[in-house]
């Protein structure tokens, strides 16, 4: 297929673009490089360095079989202090994309949604039928886009799949997590191990969990990317399907730090800090629907293995 990957110079987008190319697809990346990196675009892939608002019509006019839409603003904290950046940057931009796809007859869409659409869960593991009550603006914008996709699919025959990511981690070859502002646990802990940060703060040790720290579902970015390939194959005209992507396994903040100590051999000093606003105690996915309907199964579920891949990437960046 000929596929457009928006945000293909970012972390998840670049890994997906690489896996798509390896599977024989023709890929074009559209990225304004506001947070992505030109050197993260896989070899053999054309980069159109522009924003969706400016370029989407011209690009889709070339004719594509589908779009994988990763480009987004994705910092939860920032979304609370600068909501306009998220409503415009995520929702308005995605509407432009949907309109351009309709105008140019692009038949398929795979969209990066998020566990943040659910908010604080009533029960875990979280299924796709769980209530959607986002607790932050980031999650609210992704949910709004999901709703728009549902109506465009029903009215205009779009074949659409939204994938709701839990905590994406790990790396693939030269493609990994490189954020200007890092807020995610594993890269922060690895910054300590690589000497770029002194200590890690544990946001609360009085949560109602076994060791008192928050529990999350860490999914390897390669397993996540492979779900996108399956989603493309299973997308059906006029339908919008939604799937959670996680391992179904929860690891606490303390367990993550311990795994990082084991993999890196660094003591990684950690301090307990106050709870971070908006953090739910436990977020673990039920990915049964993706397993059953997409035939997808996460293969890289071992936490130490996920951390090892992220650590190899961190060290390759230091050598770069
Ligand atoms: N944490 C720390 N110290 C840190 C950073 C994080 O203790 O320095 C804790 C957090 O409090 C949380 C856990 O580590 O309990 C994981 O935090 P991340 O920031 O890595 O990830 P989140 O679970 O907050 O967020 C992820 C995605 C979001 C998405 C959300 C869905 O990164 O994009 O899941 O709920 F919205």
UniProtKB/TrEMBL annotation:
Keyword Isomerase tagged: yes
Keyword Isomerase (UniProt): yes
Pfam families tied to this protein: Epimerase (PF01370)
Domain named NAD-dependent epimerase/dehydratase: residues: 4-246
Cofactor: NAD(+)
Catalytic activity: UDP-alpha-D-glucose = UDP-alpha-D-galactose
UniProt EC number: 5.1.3.2
Enzyme class: isomerase
UniProt keyword list: Carbohydrate metabolism, Isomerase, NAD
One BP term from GO: galactose catabolic process via UDP-galactose, Leloir pathway
GO terms for MF: UDP-glucose 4-epimerase activity
SUPFAM superfamilies: NAD(P)-binding Rossmann-fold domains
Family per similarity comment: Belongs to the NAD(P)-dependent epimerase/dehydratase family.
Protein name: UDP-glucose 4-epimerase
Organism: Saccharothrix carnea
Taxonomic lineage: Bacteria, Bacillati, Actinomycetota, Actinomycetes, Pseudonocardiales
């Amino acid at each position: 297929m000929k596929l457009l990957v928006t945000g293909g110079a970012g972390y998840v987008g670049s890994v997906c673009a690489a896996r798509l190319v390896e599977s024989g697809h023709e890929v074009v990346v559209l990225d304004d490089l506001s947070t992505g990196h030109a050197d993260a675009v896989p070899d053999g892939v054309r980069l159109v360095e522009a924003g969706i608002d400016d370029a989407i019509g011209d690009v889709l006019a070339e004719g594509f079989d589908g779009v994988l839409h990763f480009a987004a603003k994705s910092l939860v904290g920032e979304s609370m202090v600068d909501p306009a950046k998220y409503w415009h940057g995520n929702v308005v931009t995605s509407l432009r994309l949907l309109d351009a796809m309709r105008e140019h007859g692009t038949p398929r869409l795979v969209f990066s949604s998020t566990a943040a659409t659910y908010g604080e869960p009533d029960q875990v593991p979280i299924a796709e039928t769980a209530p959607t009550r986002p607790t932050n603006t980031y999650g609210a914008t992704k949910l709004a886009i999901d709703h728009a996709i549902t109506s465009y699919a029903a009215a205009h025959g779009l074949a659409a799949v939204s994938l709701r990511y839990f905590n994406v981690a790990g790396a693939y070859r030269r493609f990994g997590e490189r954020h200007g502002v890092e807020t995610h646990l594993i890269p922060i802990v690895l910054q300590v191990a690589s000497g770029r940060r002194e200590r890690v703060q544990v946001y609360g040790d009085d949560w109602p969990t076994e060791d008192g720290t928050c529990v999350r579902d860490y999914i390897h970015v390669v397993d996540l990317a492979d779900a996108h390939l399956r989603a493309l194959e299973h997308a059906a005209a006029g339908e919008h399907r939604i799937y959670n992507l996680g391992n179904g396994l929860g690891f606490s903040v303390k367990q993550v730090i311990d795994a990082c100590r084991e993999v890196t051999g660094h003591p990684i000093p950690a301090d307990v800090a106050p709870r971070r606003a908006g953090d739910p105690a436990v977020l673990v996915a039920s990915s049964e629907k993706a397993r059953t309907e997409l035939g997808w199964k996460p293969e890289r579920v071992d936490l130490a293995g996920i951390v090892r891949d992220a650590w190899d990437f961190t060290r390759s960046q230091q050598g770069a």
